[in-house]
């Protein structure tokens, strides 16, 4: 189990035209979503790098990132109002769920790999159903140094929105991309 203390700040990347606080539950699109749609999940990171990588670096074979894609996104942050308790689904925590890093990190592709999220979604549903934990802590697939959080909707009162709709800086983006071998392209 991992705990994040009161007062810590978590980060999110969201679309420029939508609110940062969104617990998707309509179609189990993302990795830790409930396959039955009974609960929602808000995806966050301990730093802005994790959500940025999860949102904008999803095709590692393509080393170019269009500025237009970044400009359509915004940054948000949330302050933890009470300690949140999370299932660690990385490192030694993988053994508790009888899986591997590969088992919870497979690339989803509706054509070539449509079942890639079956394992993490089943783990998420089991944690939600059988514990009182607030969510899941996991490693970003696109920057494994980054810890991310899948926060269950039942823990919504544990976070307070600090800022949303903040443009992501071009200089910050260029540095982050350059450190990873990507190029920012402006058309």
TrEMBL record:
<protein>
    <submittedName>
        <fullName>RES family NAD+ phosphorylase</fullName>
    </submittedName>
</protein>
<dbReference type="Pfam" id="PF08808">
    <property type="entry name" value="RES"/>
</dbReference>
<dbReference type="InterPro" id="IPR014914">
    <property type="entry name" value="RES_dom"/>
</dbReference>
<feature type="domain" description="RES">
    <location>
        <begin position="10"/>
        <end position="159"/>
    </location>
</feature>
């Amino acid at each position: 189990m991992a705990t994040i203390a009161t007062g810590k700040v978590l980060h999110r990347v969201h679309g420029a035209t939508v609110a940062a606080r969104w617990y998707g539950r309509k179609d189990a699109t993302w990795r830790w979503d409930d396959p039955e749609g009974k609960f929602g999940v808000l995806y966050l990171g301990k730093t802005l790098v994790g959500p940025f990588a999860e949102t904008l670096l999803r095709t590692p074979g393509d080393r170019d990132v269009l500025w237009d894609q970044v400009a359509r996104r915004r940054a948000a942050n949330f302050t933890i109002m009470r300690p949140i308790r999370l299932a660690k689904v990385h490192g030694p925590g993988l053994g508790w769920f009888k899986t591997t890093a590969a088992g919870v990190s497979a690339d989803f592709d509706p054509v070539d790999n449509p079942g890639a999220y079956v394992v993490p979604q089943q783990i998420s549903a089991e944690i939600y159903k059988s514990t009182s934990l607030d969510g899941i802590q996991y490693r970003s697939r696109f920057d494994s140094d980054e810890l991310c959080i899948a926060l269950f909707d039942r823990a919504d009162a544990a976070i307070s929105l600090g800022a949303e709709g903040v443009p992501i800086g071009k200089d910050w983006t260029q540095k982050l991309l350059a450190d990873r071998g990507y190029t920012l392209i402006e058309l």
